[in-house]
Design a protein that fits this description.
Length: about 375
């Protein structure tokens, strides 16, 4: 008999803009680890009684921020994440942490742990290797800025056409006389002229060391190859799609984004996922979780669904006409649509490349 999967109720203190994407994913049912989320902040933050969307200006999240005192009195929480905020006095932090650790699971972000590690209770959990961890290597070393534009090509999983898009972009840039280097771990990538990521990305070492090593590796690669633009095909997906598989939460995307600043981002997804609400959700994840500003969304010809019997994601390749219909319907229905394109439409990819060149032309050497 399989194990019973019980979803937990989460609290966040103090609620800030770094957690808007997480809050949306729980409330809107895309995060299947938590059943509910409660938000708390000091009265001085001016958020009490407001919808959680007050911080990012997006669509309402339908979760109200409560004052600090309510978090102590709540008995309907399984776990709380506590983040560092310089506006909160030390004595207030220590008081709330000691009370909470006596009866629920308390998790500290890495920023919180490094700031007050000698004062925090030993039974608190430190989020060293999770999607909520605030890995701040800038406090410990100076990361190098890339001297050329960097484009991130991401996908909600590995089968959404991002490999093909990265190669197409390199070809389009080449036709415009710009030399592009593609960094990718796609199958047979080296035979296509791609540069593979270093082993340090996949080694079992401290995340902060990975970030520093990746940054230095990329900087040396740019100095050696002297490209006009770097296209990074991010391994894996950006989020957890399969509730039965907890090994994928966007770890590689997070580490690469923390080590290398993206000038532009493109996100690939199946066309059957194309809704205004879902695009806004994905945009929020990329901006607040990975610090990536998305220029456009690439629609693939892959239909993605979850088979609850086998507990596996199913990928089915569909005709281009299927993708085109989703795109056309979206553009007709939305007054101010996001920039979307079909990955398999060479004309649309070429138009996107021209838009990217125009956006970044002042950064080209």
């Amino acid at each position: 008999m399989g194990e019973l999967f019980i979803m937990k109720k989460l609290a966040i203190y103090p609620y800030n803009i770094r957690f808007t994407w997480l809050c949306r994913s729980i409330v809107e049912g895309w995060n299947l680890e938590y059943e509910d989320v409660q938000l708390f902040a000091p009265v001085s933050h001016g958020l009490e009684g407001k919808d959680a969307s007050a911080l990012d200006g997006g669509v309402p999240i339908k979760r109200v921020v409560h004052s600090l005192i309510n978090v102590i009195n709540s008995n309907d929480i399984d776990e709380i994440i506590i983040d560092y905020d310089e506006r909160i006095p030390l004595q207030d932090y220590i008081k709330i942490v000691k009370v909470l650790c006596s009866y629920i699971q308390v998790c500290f972000t890495k920023a919180m742990f490094f700031k007050y590690k000698d004062l925090l209770p030993e039974n608190g959990k430190v989020l060293l290797n999770s999607e909520y961890a605030a890995i701040n290597t800038a406090d410990k070393c100076q990361l190098m800025e890339m001297p050329v534009p960097v484009i991130f090509v991401l996908g909600i999983d590995d089968w959404c056409g991002k490999n093909l898009l990265a190669l197409q972009l390199r070809e389009k840039f080449s036709r415009e006389t710009y030399r592009a280097v593609v960094v990718s771990n796609m199958s047979f990538g080296e035979t296509c002229g791609c540069v593979r990521f270093p082993n340090v990305l996949f080694d079992n070492i401290d995340p902060s060391k990975k970030i520093v090593s990746l940054n230095q590796w990329m900087y040396n690669l740019v100095k050696k190859e002297k490209p006009d633009v770097v296209i990074i095909d991010i391994p894996g997906g950006i989020m957890k799609l399969n509730p039965y598989n907890f090994s994928e939460w966007g770890e590689y995307a997070y580490l690469i984004a923390m080590s290398i600043r993206a000038d532009l981002g493109l996100l690939c997804l199946p066309a059957n996922y194309l809704t205004t609400e879902y695009l806004a959700h994905l945009e929020s994840i990329c901006l607040y979780k990975y610090n990536i500003s998305l220029l456009a969304f690439g629609m693939s010809n892959v239909d993605l669904s979850l088979d609850h019997d086998t507990r596996e994601l199913i990928h089915i390749t569909l005709p281009y006409s299927h993708t085109k219909k989703f795109i056309d319907d979206y553009r007709k229905a939305v007054d101010n649509p996001k920039i979307i394109f079909s990955i398999s439409d060479k004309r649309e990819v070429n138009e996107l490349t021209q838009k990217m060149i125009k956006t970044m032309e002042q950064d080209f050497r």
